[in-house]
Specification:
The chain is of the alpha/beta class and about 425 residues long. About 20% of the residues lie in helices and about 30% in strands. Helix 1 packs parallel to helix 2 and helix 3 runs parallel beside helix 4. The chain is globular.
Length: about 425
């Protein structure tokens, strides 16, 4: 086996976009490793439309969106090993992988792009009282059962969590003939996109119970019902319990970036996102190791995943060619309503524009997003509404980015707008 210069871990939308961009940037000797038997990642089970508006200017289903990138990768002759699990990633970028076809093997690339995506938070992390009956699924598992395997998880459903996957599955289960009794959300606001709340719940008269959670799962062999209760400050309020008969409980309680390999390699992770801390090149603290997509931070639109991953592929190519000088990193401080930024730091040696992505910590009405360098306003944009479920993105022009790179401190915050 030839030793590739660049290895991309993950053959989903991020990994494919990164590989295509790297090949177009001149990297000939690269390899994509994907643990599933097919490329495309989670998109293969997302048969609803709404993908590709930013990238292709038209609405596509998840498999259609993935197919376009798979076709590009094949046209460019990019080698992809499917059914291949990466077991270990060392600090020196040595990869140990396993597949039925090739057995156990090692690779020693010069550069690595992390594109492993994310996973759902399981029941064990939620501390819900009750037995372990059949009928409790994560929303993504239920989506795979219905869309890929043609199996119905149940006929009477309660969903805990109003993330986008949970909202989409409320609609999907309804269309398949199930009765969705309610969608319960611990927080006083939904974690999903507004359009999904309208199209998946309101259009089907499915109630959304904010500030509610499951306090007990009933049934021993199979779920027979759940008890919901109102919460205040994250704690159930006694006397507000209500029983909902059902045979299925779907959990849509957040996504976690898949970073076990990153930890093995010594990559520094953000305590907020759970993903790597990266510079504006999307490079981690380990030189030559880049990250993009949901392994970096959870995105709301796959189009943004592809854009970010393409930038990672181009930056990895520049790193291999030593055409991107590394400079001192300047951290970006997120404060006053801004949870985090990607990138987390600017590179003083870079020139040109830079794209900043961030999320807020709760819903806001009419706030100004303000970027300051040494206390001076570099950029100020007023947003009529901001929500945690929707990622915000803006691009700094070269002169704005330059002012930040020359500064001693850079902060991004929300400020109230005067009437």
């Amino acid at each position: 086996m030839n030793q590739p210069e660049l290895v991309i871990i993950g053959g989903g939308p991020a990994g494919l976009a990164a590989a295509i961009a790297a090949r177009k940037a001149g990297v000939e000797n690269l390899l994509v490793l994907e643990r599933e038997d097919h490329l495309g990642g989670i998109l293969n089970q997302c048969i609803h439309n709404g993908f590709g508006l930013h990238t292709f200017g038209e609405e596509l289903t998840g498999p259609e969106y993935a197919a376009r990138y798979i076709r590009q990768a094949r046209e460019l002759g990019i080698p992809c090993f499917t059914g291949t699990t990466v077991l270990d990633l060392g600090e020196d970028k040595t990869l140990t992988a396993l597949s039925p076809e090739r057995g156990l093997f090692q690779l020693k690339p010069r550069a690595v792009i992390l594109a492993m995506g994310c996973r759902e938070r399981p029941r064990g992390a939620l501390n819900i009282p009750g037995f372990r009956p059949a009928g409790v699924y994560t929303a993504g598992t239920a989506q795979r059962l219905v869309n890929l395997e043609g199996k119905m998880p149940g006929r009477r459903v309660v969903i805990l969590g109003s993330g986008d996957i949970g909202l989409i599955m409320a609609r999907r289960m309804t269309l398949e003939g199930a009765k969705v009794e309610a969608v319960a959300e611990l927080l006083p606001y939904s974690g999903g996109l507004r359009r999904n709340i309208v199209q998946c719940l309101e259009d089907f008269d499915i109630p959304l119970l904010l500030s509610h959670t499951v306090v007990e799962i009933h049934g021993q062999r199979r779920v027979t019902g759940v008890t919901l209760a109102q919460v205040e400050n994250g704690r159930p309020i006694p006397g507000t319990e209500q029983y909902y008969p059902c045979d299925t409980l779907l959990l849509s309680c957040g996504l976690l970036p898949e970073n076990e390999l990153s930890r093995q390699a010594g990559v520094k992770l953000s305590p907020v996102t759970g993903g790597p801390l990266v510079s504006e090149e999307l490079e981690t603290n380990i030189p030559g190791v880049f990250a993009a997509g949901n392994v970096l931070h959870v995105h709301d639109l796959v189009d943004y995943v592809s854009q970010e991953a393409a930038a990672a592929g181009e930056n990895a190519a520049a790193w291999l060619e030593k055409t991107a000088p590394a400079g001192e990193l300047l951290p970006i401080t997120a404060e006053n309503g801004v949870r985090y930024t990607v990138p987390a730091a600017l590179d003083r040696a870079r020139t040109g524009p830079v794209t900043l992505r961030f999320r807020v910590d709760r819903p806001y009405k009419k706030r100004a997003v303000v970027l300051r360098a040494d206390g001076q306003v570099v950029l100020r944009r007023v947003r009529p509404a901001l929500a945690p479920g929707e990622m915000e993105t803006f691009t700094l022009k070269p002169d704005q980015a330059g002012a930040c790179r020359r500064a001693g401190t850079v902060t991004l915050s929300l400020e109230e707008v005067s009437p």
